[in-house]
Write a structure and sequence with these properties.
It is built from 16 helices and 10 strands. The protein is α+β, with helices and mostly antiparallel strands and 415 residues long. The protein has a 4-stranded antiparallel beta sheet with strand order 3-8-10-9. Bound molecules: (R)-mevalonate.
Length: 415
C-alpha cells in the first residue's frame, strides 16, 4: 500500500523520496524530476514535484495594427508554429491585422438565492449604488487609484427568488480574476448584512464586456499554392469553408480548435490563464443557440477578408506574470506589450492560425505538411538518438511515408 499521508506537509526532498518509493521510480526518472525542480514552481502549486516543460517557439513578424510583432508560442503540437508563421506571411502581403478593443471590463457575479422580493432587491441596489461601488473599490484601493476598479452594478433577475448582482470592473493591466473576486466578496458581505442570502460571489469568465474585433484583408495572390492552385481559387474555397462553419457545429468546433492551437500557445507563453480564454471563446461561439466558427472569411474583389470577434481578457501584470522568469522573458520577446497590445496580438494570432489551417485544408490537405513536420517526433518515437534525427527526418521526407514501420526500417538502414 502506497503511503501518501501528509504528502502536502513534506519538504520537496521528502516528497521526491516518497514518490520514488511509492511509484518505484527508476534512477533516471528520479533524475528527471530533480533536473526539472524549480524554486518558483514550488511556490506556485501544491504538492509540487517538478516543472513540466512545454516547447516554445517564435511566431515572427505578425502584422498587428501597423507593427510587426514577435510572439512566443508554447505548445506540444508540431506544425502549429509553422502554420502561424505561414498565416503571418500571407497577412504581410496586405496591410495586416487591424484591431479594435470595444471595452475592457470584467464581470463579478454575486449570486443571491431565496430572495423574498426581487423588486425590493433592485431598489436596494439602486439606492445603495454609490455605497456598494465604494465598498468594492475600498477592497482593492490601488485599482481605483490607477483609474480602474468597480464601475457599474446591475441586477439580473433569474426567477422570482433568484437574482444576480453583477459588478463590472476595469482591472487595468491585470486579467482581473483576483481583483474582481475580492470586490465581489466585499459586495457580498454587505448584501449579507442587508439580509440577503448569498450563494456565491465569483467573476464570470464569459468576457462579453471585453470584446476584441480583428480584421484582415489578404491579397488573394498571396494564397496561391506551390502545387499550382491559384490564389483566387484558394480564397473562394476558404470562404466556402467558412460558410460551412455556420452550418455544421462539428466543423466549427474543429476550426475553433485550430484557432485555439495558436491562441492557447501564445496565451500560455504570456503567462495568462488558458482555461479562462478557452471557456470564454467556446461560450461565445455558442451564443445564439448554435455553435459556430469564431472567424468569418469572405472574398471581396482581389482580397480575402477575415474577421473575428473574441471575448478576451488577459493581463500583463499579476498572476504568474511577475514571478516566472520565462514569462518575463516572453514579454520581453514581445517588446513588453501593454495589455491592449497583447490582446490585439492574441486575436491576430487566432486569425493567422485559422487562415493557415483552412488554406491547407482546402488545397493540399493538412497531412502532407503535418506529417513532414511530425517526422522529427516520429524519429524520436522509434528510438532515434537526437543526432540521428536530421538524417532520419530527411529519409522519411524522401520516402514520403510517415509511419512507424517505415521509420524503423529507415533507422535500421541508417545504422
Ligand atoms: C489541427 O490541430 C487543427 C486543424 O484541424 C484545424 C482545422 O481543421 O481548421 C487543422
Amino acid at each position: 500500500m502506497a503511503n501518501w499521508q501528509g504528502f502536502y506537509k513534506l519538504s520537496w526532498q521528502e516528497r521526491l523520496q516518497r514518490t520514488i518509493e511509492n511509484k518505484n521510480l527508476t534512477a533516471d526518472q528520479a533524475a528527471l524530476i530533480t533536473q526539472h525542480y524549480d524554486m518558483v514552481g514550488e511556490q506556485q502549486v501544491e504538492n509540487y514535484l517538478y516543472n513540466f516543460g512545454v516547447p516554445t517557439g517564435l511566431l515572427l513578424e505578425l502584422p498587428v495594427d501597423g507593427r510587426l510583432v514577435t510572439v512566443p508560442m508554447s505548445t506540444e503540437e508540431p506544425s502549429v508554429i509553422a502554420a502561424a508563421n505561414n498565416g503571418a506571411r500571407m497577412m504581410r502581403a496586405g496591410a495586416g491585422v487591424q484591431t479594435v478593443i470595444e471595452s475592457r471590463l470584467v464581470r463579478g457575479q454575486i449570486i443571491l438565492d431565496n430572495v423574498a422580493d426581487v423588486v425590493a432587491l433592485q431598489t436596494y441596489v439602486e439606492t445603495h449604488l454609490t455605497q456598494l461601488l465604494q465598498v468594492a473599490n475600498d477592497a482593492h484601493p490601488s485599482m481605483a487609484k490607477r483609474g480602474g476598479g468597480a464601475k457599474a452594478l446591475t441586477v439580473e433577475v433569474l426567477d422570482a427568488q433568484t437574482a444576480i448582482v453583477n459588478v463590472l470592473v476595469d482591472p487595468k493591466a491585470a486579467m482581473g480574476a483576483n481583483v474582481v473576486n475580492t470586490m465581489s466578496e466585499a459586495i457580498a458581505s454587505v448584501l449579507r448584512q442587508a439580509g440577503y442570502e448569498v450563494l456565491m460571489a465569483i467573476l464570470s469568465n464569459f468576457a462579453t464586456e471585453s470584446l476584441v474585433k480583428a480584421k484582415v484583408a489578404v491579397p488573394v495572390t498571396a494564397l496561391a499554392t506551390k502545387q499550382g492552385m491559384s490564389g483566387a481559387d484558394v480564397a473562394a474555397k476558404i470562404a466556402a469553408a467558412s460558410r460551412i462553419e455556420t452550418l455544421s457545429p462539428y466543423r466549427a468546433v474543429t476550426s475553433n480548435k485550430g484557432m485555439l492551437n495558436g491562441i492557447e500557445a501564445a496565451v500560455l507563453a504570456s503567462g495568462n490563464d488558458t482555461r479562462a480564454v478557452n471557456a470564454a471563446l467556446h461560450a461565445y461561439a455558442a451564443q445564439g443557440g448554435q455553435y459556430h466558427g469564431l472567424t468569418r472569411w469572405t472574398v471581396q474583389g482581389e482580397e480575402l477578408l477575415g474577421e473575428t470577434t473574441l471575448p478576451l481578457i488577459l493581463g500583463v501584470v499579476g498572476g504568474s506574470i511577475g514571478i516566472v522568469p520565462a514569462v518575463k522573458l516572453n514579454h520581453a520577446l514581445m517588446d513588453n506589450p501593454t495589455v491592449n497590445e497583447l490582446t490585439s496580438t492574441i486575436a491576430a494570432v487566432g486569425l493567422a492560425q485559422n487562415l493557415a489551417a483552412i488554406r491547407a485544408l482546402v488545397s493540399t490537405g493538412i497531412q502532407a505538411g503535418h506529417m513532414a513536420l511530425q517526422a522529427k517526433s516520429l524519429a524520436l518515437q522509434v528510438g532515434a538518438a537526437p543526432a540521428e534525427v536530421p538524417a532520419l527526418t530527411a529519409a522519411l521526407q524522401q520516402a514520403g511515408k510517415f509511419n512507424e514501420t517505415t521509420a524503423r526500417e529507415l533507422l535500421a538502414k541508417l545504422r
